[in-house]
Write a structure and sequence with these properties.
This protein is α/β, with parallel strands linked by helices. 37% of the residues lie in helices and 16% in strands.
């Protein structure tokens, strides 16, 4: 158990030293991120709440260099065991959760990875565009 905690702290320290500010490696956070809607339970080494693309790139590079698995977690999709993992959990839902743009003419929307479907639906409805129109590519 002490080895896992030491590895988690080392990883978190390395991420912080590279400028990633929102790194969680406390037992409570790691326990909270160890499960999803499935029956599985896998305690991660650390949880990163990226504020921007630089945080994501830095985290990816460190995990790649150290051979640490990385699991991306968005806004509740794939909760059948896909949102948990033993390495780093990259949780986009806190900060990278915006609808960047909606282009009705091109029938496209650009969203950040932590965007909730209902948010996109609400914004498109307010602009008089039904989400189905964005998705219908026929």
């Amino acid at each position: 158990m002490h080895t896992v905690v030491a590895q988690s702290q080392s990883l978190a320290t390395a991420l912080r030293s590279r400028g990633v500010r929102h790194v969680r490696d406390d037992d409570t956070t790691r326990a909270a991120y160890s499960s999803d809607a499935s029956l599985y339970r896998v305690v991660p080494s650390a949880v990163v709440l990226p504020r921007d693309a630089d945080d994501v790139a830095t985290t990816l590079a460190l995990c790649r260099d150290r051979g640490i698995p990385l699991t991306s977690r968005g806004a509740g999709t794939s909760v059948a065991g896909n949102a948990i993992g033993a390495g780093v959990i990259l949780d986009f839902s806190r900060y990278l959760n915006q609808v960047v743009s909606i282009d009705a003419e091109a029938r496209t929307a650009v969203v950040q990875p932590g965007t909730v479907h209902a948010t996109l639906q609400d914004l498109s409805d307010r602009r008089g565009i039904h989400l189905a129109q964005l998705l219908d590519q026929s």
